[in-house]
Amino acid sequence: MRLSDIILLSLQNLLGNKMRSFLTILGVGVGIGAIIFLVGIGFGVQDLTIKKLTTSSATTSLEVYSGNPDLVKLDSKVVQRISNFPEVEKISASTSLPGQSAYAEVNTETLIKIVDSNYYELNQTKFLAGVKPKAKNEITVSNGLLKLFNISDPQSIIAKEIQLSLFMLQNQSDGKDSYEMKGLVVGVIDNPSQIVEIQDSDFSVSAIDYSRIKIKAKSVSDVAAVQKKVNDLGFEVSSLMEKLNEINRVFKVIQIVLASFGLIALAVAAIGMFNTMTVTLLERTREIGIIRALGARRKEVEKLFIFESGMIGLAGGVMGVILAYILSLFVNVGINLLAKSVGQEGLAIFRLPVSFVGGVIVFSLLVGIITGIYPSLRAARLNPLQALRYE
Amino acid sequence: MKRHPIIEVVKIEKTYDIGQPNEFRALRGVSFKIYAGDFIIILGPSGCGKSTLLHCLAGLEIFDSGEIKIRGEKMSKMNEDSLTSHRRNKIGMVFQQFNLIKNLSVLQNVALPRMLQGKSRVSRISRAKKLLTDFGLGKMFNRIPSELSGGQQQRVAIARALVNAPWILLVDEPTGNLDSKSAKEVMKLIVVLNKKSKRTIVLVTHNPGYLHLASRVIKIQDGKIVK
Ligand SMILES: Nc1ncnc2c1ncn2[C@@H]1O[C@H](COP(=O)(O)OP(=O)(O)OP(=O)(O)O)[C@@H](O)[C@H]1O
Ligand SMILES: [Mg+2]
């Protein structure tokens, strides 16, 4: 018997019992669909999280904190050493001080950052208006601060002066513990906190140590080396790469948990499928007797059954993909409506990698075949005459 | 020139449910020979073992002792695979119940044994169509068996048994489930197969009215040949 004929006969059988075939396939489809849907949400949320965290250049950056300032100081000498590492492309040091800012009768607590010229680039600062500072007395302010000043149009603060007071944390050589200055606003950055940035390396170097250094490695593969070297200097380093790996690990676990829920659904469907194949076997006992009496080999009867259940598995897998896809459309639309109603931009919470979909369909096919093994062996073992007498 | 039998049955015995209270000796030392071109009618009352005998010839039932030789080849030595191949290639069996597959079309039913032989679609379909047309069923190709009358179904079953050009046609009670008119038509068809197409036929019946058609009659009672 030709393989094509075995396929033909099993297909004919599936089609000859449309309702039952459909229900069985639907059962498998729901199980497979549950797996795909749950894991797809896992993938989608993972994507969202990572997208929020990364931009292409963010993956090559590292942050250095002073760690234990009593032992090792994060000062200009350290910055110099780090910038000499061959893997380092750029480095930016900054320090943050508590302070106050005053503008048009409003006086408010402000975080004052003393930054260098690489700061804006390495932090990928988003400007709402203006440009980065070029001279010592030029500053940028955050839109969070503008809100407190009751300014809604960022453009309107450009070229205005703000009165600043910085509170020194360390004792200065001249004994002063605060510092007053007038800052000329040249840019507005997008940040909800109240921040003022002063670009004045001379000031910061002489007055205080840095609280934070940002490093851009030459490539993603250099990140680990830089991280190790800076660690060896006695500083704490965190890189986005490291965080991403951590996040990805967490999501792997989440996906496995979600997939296990789906697997339970699939197990139920597989039992249903097994049941159907066994009932089919009983119903077709006579037919098996006939084709065996006409000279069909045992192996061929076996293949007929295996192929049939394999087809159910395959069709169930495809149906599962379709079901999960339709469900995901609804969920995405729902989430987007929700996001828009609270003023967020739309987002896709659901993603399915093609390789995963392919894998699940193959898996479903395998489930079908495995489910069919026992009924098919039983069918092949039937004595033709006894099978003919059945009913 | 000495004629060699196609099939030689030597003292075969078959007992059902051996060792159990309902043990039943269905065949008790049956011997006979079948030659090419024979039309043998096996006659006997219900339950005498006719179907059992045919099933043994067809390789569907395993006999306990004795021997059946198919052109010299001993059936007792055949394994499951050889018996399956024997059924597929050498025997055309028409069952007491028609035993057609209910969700295959008439054409597919007739072509099925050729499909089992691995013949191409074109060859099996053309042969099935020719046989069905010869049997007056030219318009029924695409019907399913339940849409045919009993007589028509029996003719489909005979066409199916012939489609592989078997060495011998075994027919079990072909008229048992038919009215007298259909029965006559079917018997006529079988006679033509023997006379015109030179088919070797073994036919089982309990109806003595057909005996005159046979080239040889074997009478069985209680599992033994009585004449
Ligand atoms: N599988 C079986 N198990 C037990 N007994 C059987 C079996 N098959 C047949 N018999 C018995 O063997 C005897 C012969 O059966 P068989 O079917 O050969 O009779 P038959 O001559 O064909 O009868 P009929 O004309 O009614 O078809 C019967 O008594 C029957 O009950
Ligand atoms: Mg009988």
TrEMBL record, chain A:
* Domain MacB-like periplasmic core: start-end pairs: 21-232
Localized where? Cell membrane
Q: Is-annotated flag, keyword Transmembrane helix?
A: yes
Pfam families, A to Z:
FtsX (PF02687), MacB_PCD (PF12704)
Which stretches are transmembrane? 21-45, 256-283, 304-328, 348-374
What region holds the ABC3 transporter permease C-terminal domain? 260-384
Give the protein name, as stated in the record.
Answer: ABC transport system permease protein
What family does the Swiss-Prot or TrEMBL record give for this protein? Belongs to the ABC-4 integral membrane protein family.
UniProtKB/TrEMBL annotation, chain B:
In its keyword annotation, does this UniProt entry include ATP-binding? yes
Recorded GO molecular functions are: ATP binding; ATP hydrolysis activity; transmembrane transporter activity
Give GO cellular component annotations, separated by semicolons: membrane protein complex
Q: Which PANTHER family match?
A: ALPHA-D-RIBOSE 1-METHYLPHOSPHONATE 5-TRIPHOSPHATE SYNTHASE SUBUNIT PHNL, LIPOPROTEIN-RELEASING SYSTEM ATP-BINDING PROTEIN LOLD
Source species of the chain: Candidatus Berkelbacteria bacterium Licking1014_7
Alphabetic keyword roster: ATP-binding, Nucleotide-binding, Transport
User: What protein name is recorded for this chain?
Assistant: Putative ABC transport system ATP-binding protein
InterPro entries, sorted: AAA+_ATPase, ABC_transporter-like_ATP-bd, ABC_transporter-like_CS, MacB-like_ATP-bd, P-loop_NTPase
Q: Which family does it belong to?
A: Belongs to the ABC transporter superfamily.
> Domain of life, per the record?
Bacteria
Q: Where is the ABC transporter domain?
A: 7-226
UniProt xrefs under Gene3D superfamilies: P-loop containing nucleotide triphosphate hydrolases
